[in-house]
TrEMBL record:
SUPFAM superfamilies documented for this protein: Ankyrin repeat
Lineage per the UniProt record: Eukaryota, Viridiplantae, Streptophyta, Embryophyta, Tracheophyta
Name the record gives this protein: Ankyrin repeat-containing domain superfamily
Domain of life: Eukaryota
Length: 132
């Protein structure tokens, strides 16, 4: 199956789309993967041998909307550690541009995206509660 083929780094197209922040491609591939794979087969698309997940990749690519979608669709990935024993929430907290001055969140506030921000923080608080 073409969806399960990997590149030289062992990443499927789904992983590559999450890593590079290609939201539309990710959604298309995710929909097709979910149609054909279930249970342990689906896990091979969501997690790598290095313990990194598609949620880790979305956070690292700073595609927070995609990360939120992944967390909602696959909540079990929220608590998964990567190879450095970091959860996606820990990776997010280490991302200085998100929480620093002139950050992504501040730009969203200035652009009037307060509803998205409220939803984002509700999601973060749910993630935090699940981790505690």
């Amino acid at each position: 199956m073409l969806l399960s083929m990997t590149n030289g780094h062992g990443h499927t197209a789904l992983f590559t789309a999450a890593s590079s922040g290609k939201t539309k491609i990710f959604k298309l591939l995710h929909r097709e993967v979910c149609k054909t794979a279930q249970g342990a087969d689906l896990k091979t698309f969501l997690e790598r041998d290095t313990k990194s997940t598609i949620l880790h990749k979305a956070v690292l690519s700073r595609n927070y909307r995609l990360a939120h979608e992944i967390a909602v669709k696959h909540p079990h990935l929220i608590t998964e550690d990567d190879g450095d024993e970091m959860t996606p929430l820990q990776l997010l907290s280490c991302s200085l541009p998100v929480f620093g001055r002139k950050s992504y969140l501040m730009r969203m506030i200035y652009k009037g995206m307060h509803n998205y921000i409220l939803h984002f923080f509700e999601s973060i608080s749910v993630l935090f509660i699940l981790l505690v």
